[in-house]
Structure formats: structure tokens, C-alpha cells
């Protein structure tokens, strides 16, 4: 009874009335605290706060550094930069397409329904990879048409090597995509933003717009441990010197399939764990 009288008295007080300024500020404060707790409890969200500004500064700092020392290279820059941008988009689209197909099942809470059917994990992976390939091919064709009519640049100038570059970047993107969806299975929706952010962590060290030698000496071995760096180094040699570098090809192929293997193993491990813990039925919007 005393508690009811106390609550009635507090409700009648004007400073905490539902329509009062103080009450409104408290509701706003409560929502702010809610979102703060979401950020505080998720390291991917914390990382995202500083991720994009840092990435922009690092990437374009290296581009500027290269151009300042290579003024004679600028005459070839348009074709090389456009080719690099289009091939980089291949890797980004390959990874994001695979991730989005998985997220569609997660958002609709359909993962549990899928895996009470006879569908096997490897069949699911193959379906994701196939859809990633189709979506990326469509995007590349559209981009190539636009580049030709706007800039008179034909990506087909790379010849048969274009298929090689495209294939190796796709294989790398699938490996990254499988690792990302494994993180979502493991950590939940807090890791979903990795699908858009993770691939760009490779952008500064992939030598898309400048050679690996522009990077600091301690960063160069890390760059050469990525398939993308060898692909873009090979692309530049092909466009500038007209030579296909087989050494870069073999390194890129070996590393790309290593990435894919790591992705498959990581996914299978995360999937088994999620199924054992019942997360396939719980995860979703």
C-alpha cells in the first residue's frame, strides 16, 4: 500500500511527468545508454568506430607517397587505376555477395529450417559460392560497360589474363566470406558489420593502386602473404610492360586456395559449434 502511494505521488510530480522535459531527457538518456552498452559489449562495434577514418588515411597516404616519386608513371595511371578499381570490386563483391546470401537466411531465421532438411554444410557452401560468382559477374559486366562508355577503357585489354585475375580474387573472397560468416555464427549479430569492413582491411596491403615496395619494409611481407597483392602486382606488369609474371601467378594461386581452405575449415568448425549449442534456431533479427 505504501509503495502504491509512493508511486502515485511520484507520477503526480510535474518534474517527472510523462510529458515533461525531464522525463523526455531520461528516455533519451536510456536509449543512449542502451546503444552504448551494445557498443561496449561488442568488440566488432568498437573497432568499427575508428576503422573507416583510419583506413582512408592509410590508403590515400600510400597513394600520395607513390605519386610524388613517380611523375612519369601518371601517363599510364588512368588505365592501371581503373583496372585496379574494377578488379578490387571483384574481390569485394565476391565476399559481400557470399555473406549477404548467408545473412538472408539468418535475418529470416531460416538457418534452423534449412539444416533440419537433408541439406549438408558443403552443399550450402557450394550454393553460396555459386551465387557469389553469378552476382559478381553481373556487377563486373555492368562496371565494364560503364567504364568503356565514360572513360574509353576496356578491361578486356588484359586478355585471357583477366580470367586468371578474376578467378584468383574470387577464390580469396570466398575464403574471407566463409571466415566472416563463421564469426557471425560464433559471436552473433554483433559481428555482422565485419562483412562490410573486413575486406577493406586488406586494401592498403593489397597493392591495388601502388606497388608493394611503397609500403614500409615491415609491412611488405604481410602484403606478399595475400593473394591480392600478387594479383595486382601482376596486373600492373601486364598493363605497363606487357609481360605476364608467372611467379606472381603461382604465389597468388597457392595463397588463394589456402585462404579458401582456411575459410572452409573455419566454417565447418563454427557450424558444428552453433548446431551443438542450438544457435541455428536462435540467431536472427
The computed structural class is mainly alpha
Helices, by number, come to 12
Residue share in helix: over 70%
Average pLDDT, all residues? 79
| Gyration radius, rounded | 25 Å
Report the principal-axis shape: globular
How many structural domains? Answer: 2
Largest sheet: none
The helix/strand series, from N terminus to C terminus, equals HHHHHHHHHHHH
How many strands appear in the DSSP assignment?
A: 0
Binned strand content? under 5%
Distance between the termini: 41 Å
Which residues sit in consecutive blocks of at least 5 with pLDDT less than 50?
6-16
Entry summary:
74% of the residues lie in helices and 0% in strands.
What does this protein look like?
This protein has helices at 2-12, 21-40, 43-69, 77-107, 111-114, 121-151, 161-187, 194-197, 220-224, 227-241, 246-277, 279-282. Residues 6-16 have low confidence and may be disordered. It contains 12 helices and no strands. It folds into 2 domains: 1-40, no CATH class; 51-282, no CATH class. The protein is mostly helical. Helix 4 (77-107) runs antiparallel to helix 6 (121-151), helix 4 (77-107) runs antiparallel to helix 10 and helix 7 packs antiparallel against helix 10 (227-241).
